């Protein structure tokens, strides 16, 4: 009977004494999860991701706690004697109530301790240095592809020849009636320099307007693209998974020893991981680095990649000079379910903590903490990451500009054709009028007394125009005098 009473009243006692719960928490200092911040007064306070999570839990469960650092600074693994070290050993052997850190949940640890659900999901990631671009002597040609440069040259020649054709047809005195002047006009517009002469005819003006539009667009695109290429790195390695590192013979890689990452490679049955582990053992002195030293090794070498748990890599790449590339994905199973708090085996508070962590996921508390420590403090904005993928401009990207320019050239030739037709029609009309005028005053015969007969039936004396009447009676002399008379009539 007394046992049942105790079971019934146990939740009450737990609830009534929850305000006085105290936990001795073992941890390690790893930024941004937990670290000491020294202010201007040289006083230190402990802050970090873990502190924010525990403070949120403390407001919900009502407990007090105190940190102490793991004596050996390890997370927890079995040593040569079969003893667990690190934070896992502190909780296992009763020296700590909770292990609160970036402690990965894995099978060996779960067999001896009780974990909360993960407060942060974890995967393996790889970080490597962004390849840099070595610009050559012709680097200024890089913004456009070869096809685009050919289009620009061809458009310049078409414009110049069109202006030349319109110029010589318009007038010999047209300023664009020479090939040299037309080429100079096209180049001056292309380089945004004002030409000395401008076209006069409508066809030439339409051509010039089309060329001005084309030149403005090309110059704007060229300037923007060249600026991007000279200020950001364009190259990137095609590494999408950790296993892709096996495809680069000259590339070396390393991991952090003594943690879940080493466990994932050392005990994996996944063939690529086995090959990578064998390679790291072969180069033992160049394959194992502690935390920040591994990231520094990456920044110093262009042929080294560092494999680590994803939250740390996500944090490492947020610092200047923003020269690191990060890949999270892997074809292998995850290295662990995530980071969680460790309690003694079957401790009831592990369940209480798990329930509150789920609520913190639901109400956005954990998302806000993650943003605070992994996003807000970042020195590398998303804009810089996106700018690293600037590509060469191809013809397909500017075809609209080219077709607009081509349309202007077609319109200019339509104006040119209309002018040719108008000039031909005017010439035909003038010729017809002149023929009629000539026929109206055309002398057809001359009599012996010097009287000239015209095709319209009228006659006139040649003496009125100073033509010699004594022209003879033979047909030859009459023909000569008729010619002389026509010359007189044509005088003003």
Summarize the structure.
The protein has 492 residues and is an alpha/beta fold. The protein contains 16 helices and 14 strands. It has helices spanning 2-16, 49-61, 86-92, 107-112, 146-170, 179-190, 202-231, 260-266, 271-282, 292-300, 310-316, 349-362, 365-374, 382-387, 395-440, 475-489, and strands at 21-27, 35-38, 44-47, 63-69, 98-99, 113-115, 124-129, 252-255, 304-309, 324-327, 342-344, 443-446, 451-454, 459-461.
Architecture overview:
With 492 residues, the protein is of the alpha/beta class. Helices cover 48% and strands 12% of the residues. The chain is built from 16 helices and 14 strands. The chain has helices spanning 2-16, 49-61, 86-92, 107-112, 146-170, 179-190, 202-231, 260-266, 271-282, 292-300, 310-316, 349-362, 365-374, 382-387, 395-440, 475-489, and strands at residues 21-27, 35-38, 44-47, 63-69, 98-99, 113-115, 124-129, 252-255, 304-309, 324-327, 342-344, 443-446, 451-454, 459-461. The strands form 5 sheets. The protein has a 4-stranded mixed sheet with strand order 8-9-7-10. Strands 4-1-5 form a 3-stranded parallel sheet, with helices on both faces. Helix 2 (49-61) packs antiparallel against helix 13 and helix 5 packs across helix 6. The longest helix is centred in the last third of the chain and has 46 residues, at 395-440. It is elongated. Mean pLDDT is 75; it is low at 1-18, 383-390, 464-483 and 485-492.
Shape verdict: elongated
What's the total helix number? 16
The percent range for strand residues is 5-15%
- Rounded Rg: 47 Å
H/E topology pattern: HEEEHEHEHEEHHHEHHHEHEEHHHHEEEH
Helix content: 40-55%
Contiguous uncertain segments of 5+ residues: 1-18, 383-390, 464-483, 485-492
Give the total of beta strands: 14
């Amino acid at each position: 009977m007394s046992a049942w009473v105790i079971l019934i009243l146990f939740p009450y006692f737990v609830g009534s004494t929850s305000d006085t719960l105290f936990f001795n928490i073992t941890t390690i200092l790893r930024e941004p999860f937990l670290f000491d911040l020294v202010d201007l007064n040289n006083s230190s306070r402990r802050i970090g991701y873990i502190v924010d999570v525990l403070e949120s839990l403390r407001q919900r469960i009502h407990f007090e706690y105190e940190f102490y650092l793991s004596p050996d600074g390890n997370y927890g693994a079995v040593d040569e004697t079969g003893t667990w070290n690190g934070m896992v050993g502190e909780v296992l052997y009763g020296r700590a109530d909770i292990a609160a850190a970036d402690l990965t949940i894995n099978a060996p640890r779960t067999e001896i301790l009780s974990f909360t659900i993960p407060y942060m999901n974890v995967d393996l990631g790889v970080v490597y240095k962004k390849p840099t671009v070595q610009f050559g002597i012709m680097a200024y040609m890089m913004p456009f592809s070869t096809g685009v440069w050919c289009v620009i040259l061809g458009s310049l020649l078409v414009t110049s020849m069109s202006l030349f054709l319109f110029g010589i047809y318009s007038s010999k005195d047209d300023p664009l009636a020479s090939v040299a002047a037309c080429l100079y006009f096209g180049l001056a517009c292309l380089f945004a320099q004002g030409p000395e002469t401008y076209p006069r005819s409508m066809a030439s003006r339409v051509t010039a307007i089309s060329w001005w539009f084309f030149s403005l667009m090309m110059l704007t695109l060229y300037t923007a693209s060249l600026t991007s290429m000279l200020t950001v790195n364009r190259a990137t390695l095609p590494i999408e998974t950790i296993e892709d590192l096996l495809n680069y013979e000259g590339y070396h890689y390393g991991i952090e020893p003594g943690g879940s990452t080493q466990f994932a490679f050392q005990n994996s049955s996944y063939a690529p991981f086995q090959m990578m582990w064998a390679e790291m053992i072969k180069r033992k002195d160049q394959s194992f680095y502690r935390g920040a030293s591994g990231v520094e090794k990456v920044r110093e070498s262009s042929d080294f990649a560092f494999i680590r748990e994803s939250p740390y890599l996500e944090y490492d790449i947020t610092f200047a000079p923003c020269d690191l590339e990060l890949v999270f994905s892997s074809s292998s199973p995850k290295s662990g379910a995530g980071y969680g708090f460790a309690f003694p085996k079957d401790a009831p508070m592990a369940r209480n903590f798990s329930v509150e962590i789920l609520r913190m996921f639901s109400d956005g508390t954990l998302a806000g903490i993650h943003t605070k420590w992994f996003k807000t403090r970042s020195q590398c904005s998303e804009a810089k990451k996106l700018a690293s993928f600037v590509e060469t401009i191809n013809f397909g990207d500017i075809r609209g500009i080219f077709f607009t320019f081509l349309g202007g050239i077609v319109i200019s030739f339509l104006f040119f054709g209309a002018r040719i037709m108008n000039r031909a029609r005017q010439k035909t009309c003038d010729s017809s009028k002149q023929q009629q005028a000539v026929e109206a005053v055309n002398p057809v015969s001359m009599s012996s007394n010097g009287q000239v007969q015209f095709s319209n039936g009228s006659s006139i004396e040649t003496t009125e125009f100073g033509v010699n009447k004594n022209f003879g009676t033979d047909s030859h002399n009459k023909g000569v005098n008729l010619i002389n008379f026509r010359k007189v009539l044509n005088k003003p």
